[in-house]
Amino acid sequence: MPAxxxxxxxxxxxxxxxxxxxGIVSAVSSVLARAGANVVxxxxxxxxxxxxxxxxxxxxxxxxxxxxxxxxxxxxxEALGSLGLSYRLIEARKPKRVAxxxxxxxxxLLDLLWRQRRGEIxxxxxxxxxxxxxxxxxxxxxxxxxxxxxxxxxxKDVAEKEHLKLLKGNIDxxxxxxxxxxxxxxxLEEVGAPVINIHHSFLPAFVGAGPYQKARDxxxxxxxxxxxxxxxxxxxxPIIEQDVVRVSHHETTPDLQRRGxxxxxxxxxxxxxxxxxDRVLLNGNQTVVF
Amino acid sequence: MPAxxxxxxxxxxxxxxxxxxxGIVSAVSSVLARAGANVVxxxxxxxxxxxxxxxxxxxxxxxxxxxxxxxxxxxxxEALGSLGLSYRLIEARKPKRVAxxxxxxxxxLLDLLWRQRRGEIxxxxxxxxxxxxxxxxxxxxxxxxxxxxxxxxxxKDVAEKEHLKLLKGNIDxxxxxxxxxxxxxxxLEEVGAPVINIHHSFLPAFVGAGPYQKARDxxxxxxxxxxxxxxxxxxxxPIIEQDVVRVSHHETTPDLQRRGxxxxxxxxxxxxxxxxxDRVLLNGNQTVVF
Amino acid sequence: MPAxxxxxxxxxxxxxxxxxxxGIVSAVSSVLARAGANVVxxxxxxxxxxxxxxxxxxxxxxxxxxxxxxxxxxxxxEALGSLGLSYRLIEARKPKRVAxxxxxxxxxLLDLLWRQRRGEIxxxxxxxxxxxxxxxxxxxxxxxxxxxxxxxxxxKDVAEKEHLKLLKGNIDxxxxxxxxxxxxxxxLEEVGAPVINIHHSFLPAFVGAGPYQKARDxxxxxxxxxxxxxxxxxxxxPIIEQDVVRVSHHETTPDLQRRGxxxxxxxxxxxxxxxxxDRVLLNGNQTVVF
Amino acid sequence: MPAxxxxxxxxxxxxxxxxxxxGIVSAVSSVLARAGANVVxxxxxxxxxxxxxxxxxxxxxxxxxxxxxxxxxxxxxEALGSLGLSYRLIEARKPKRVAxxxxxxxxxLLDLLWRQRRGEIxxxxxxxxxxxxxxxxxxxxxxxxxxxxxxxxxxKDVAEKEHLKLLKGNIDxxxxxxxxxxxxxxxLEEVGAPVINIHHSFLPAFVGAGPYQKARDxxxxxxxxxxxxxxxxxxxxPIIEQDVVRVSHHETTPDLQRRGxxxxxxxxxxxxxxxxxDRVLLNGNQTVVF
Lengths: 290, 290, 290, 290
Known about the structure:
The structure is a homotetramer. Chain A is an alpha/beta fold.
């Protein structure tokens, strides 16, 4: 038995969000029912009875989905537009186009490449960009282009221009897999796709550089990792996923880095998977993860 | 801001299940929308595209809910009856009527009593029945009736008759909080309410008596607990919730019992809470937990 | 089979710490061996090969332990004094004398009282002090004195004087079980016993008041609790234990408080247990937990 | 600061086990102290006060360790032989020689290869043997020999002879990384090294083939994995490590396999790491993990 949300040519996803009000679920499901679609999973969340914000993700099966899209869109425009709701209608068979940026650490990058090869994440990795050449051989071994864009001191804008040339229009998602450079606000505005970063601490603890050393100094008993959307405010973007692992006085800072690396790769892989399955909705600076 | 599923006079829950087919979600939500209800949370699950089983739990807010129930029921009968689906329409403001059976161990029992006092579980504990007198003072300290029904060797049927006299018609749920007696099939048939048990192992490992000793002998590195509905087949009923805790070679069998007791009380409390919030649906010998 | 560290009349514990150097383990174990003691558990930790700090906890069995103490002490003075090491020699049969301070929340307090009644923590709870009368009946139900010491606005020093009168010389440990008052540095100096506090967040995230609201606002995916020794710097003392629980967008701030309460009571109970078993050693602002 | 147990030319490990009796720790540490060794970590465990079994692992630093080994051995023979204790004296700088057997699944195998390349596990992987050719390219990409030994139906003894020719005398440990063939008792006797297997369930639940399907059918809420030493009794050998991951009704059997694969690779990597650091001691059919 295939998993209900397994991408097939005929699986669609409908994301709806906006101001909560009675009748939204009914309006959405009526449109789908009239088209002959079968709802295979539906998640709904509202921040409150009155004056709240409404979020819904529906996965549905509809024979010949691609052909029905124009009609479905027209009906959704009519049903939802008057309610002031926005929606996205997605064909699940189309994997997200993803680029990954990395530096010298391989753990997060390799885990993503390996999961994509196994078919665990519905994405196509278009390219890997790095400010160091070290990981080239590994990446190309997966059959994926590796592009080395050095970042010269004081000339980040040059590098970012090259990045934008490679990325703009070509991707649906950019993943920073331990890319050790700060991204400019201009870049974020221009790249035209959401950016996910993995921070190597349990945010908001230990923001900034060197979190494992800070964790060691503070003597915490758990270390963690946080995957979040990147905004101009460093380490302050909406959190998608977090996890922790238990440590003790025995662990030195390098030990914490090793233990943490395992958490980082899991947390980032989960966040990327959920994003590529259209499970992550933005609610201000928070996320709703269905 | 109240939690969306916080019981208020006007919060309703609608549970629908049956053979999957296109249009169910739409039919259900249309009925609710016509009544002016606002869906505050909706969970839906289907075991497959075609020929699958369908499960849905909807929590909704409707001003003056009690007065709308007859109309809602009539409309649901019409909308769902023709599709061969069954449904339950529940007023969340009515807590479940619960009885607890226990023996000498206090940890699961006290955790339930304490959580009910804090308002964490939407239930009224009507009585506690025990085959031993030991826990009477603790229970009565919470203002709850404690009834001692000894079980004489070879005369369990006598005790069960007394149990049934106390329970039949008076409860919506019976919880076995480490009640160390086997329940007969006749009792289960007659009691007229679901029965939840806590088993002190990670089922299906270590069925039967003495699971912690068996766990020690096998040298496992985790011990656990399982909350399940009771059926005639001992330790084989549908599992609602499970959890584990890490142990090591240092732990003796009494240590495992102590460590396990913490897991038992958490697992049982979660299972009872979810049941009382109508989140647990039966799917053959499995559960769907929304 | 009793747990090796089960308090019996003849179980002793020896804690040694100081500058690391070759031969310490040998010196300690020679003293114990000459006395005829049997080591039942030994934990040792050193922060580095050279110039490091040394920590050791040894649990041993010695028939007629009390009678051997003067000789053991004399031999340890000789063996360890010359190495510049400090030590504590403890009879495990003597439970720690503990006072608990609480306010209105019962979850941490009741968990400690209940575990002590079950014999899970080697302590005698001498008294519970509260700035509110609410929890008196619960505490006295366990047969433990409850003393209500109101804290008038601007007159904390009056209350603290009364606290000190009750506590000084009478306790080995003071536990703040969600006591919602800041403790003065003077009090800490005078009380003559270590003080353990439970902070309702995963420190160093969300220091100060209202951590669950802050966690909700930041949209974290895990909430936690931290047990630490109290120092003059609020929320900055040495961490003994931490844990977390997964939450989602569904949880409101009151939900987080409820979920967090479960973690708080577990974390505090573990920290108090470990302290009372002499497992927690101070290493600057960090702890070594054996 | 290097981790205390970081292999350096001068780090030694001493494993002692046998019948418990007073004076063992002292005897061992005296030998080490006389040689000028500095104990950097010491773990000791005893199954009981009298008639128990004794286990000790000591890591120590001794300048010019290799040159001291003959003297140390002679002294340990004298000190421990008379007490009927066995011991192993190990130079930590020598990584374990390891062979891995796999079939078609890559997740456990790749995780071990990758961790060894990162320097996380003190082992040299001498070769990978598989009954299928599929993983050859991946393995050789890590610079490690891959040997394809097909197992013809009814001719397992032929394959095992070839395995033994490759392995005997060449390895300190054999790891079965999802090798889907049953190993004969004769092979285990002849191979001359311990064998670690990863079982894809939380043993003793779901022994034998198809554990994820069995887990789905039983409706469990957690799936797990178990790393154990291989004995003639299938799935019954001493357990080294276990872990679990939470699942729900949503997960199909392939989903469980995917979720479980993550746990399998973590559990196996931890077990192999601990074995290679000489942290795993056998106690009958159980393990002591220091």
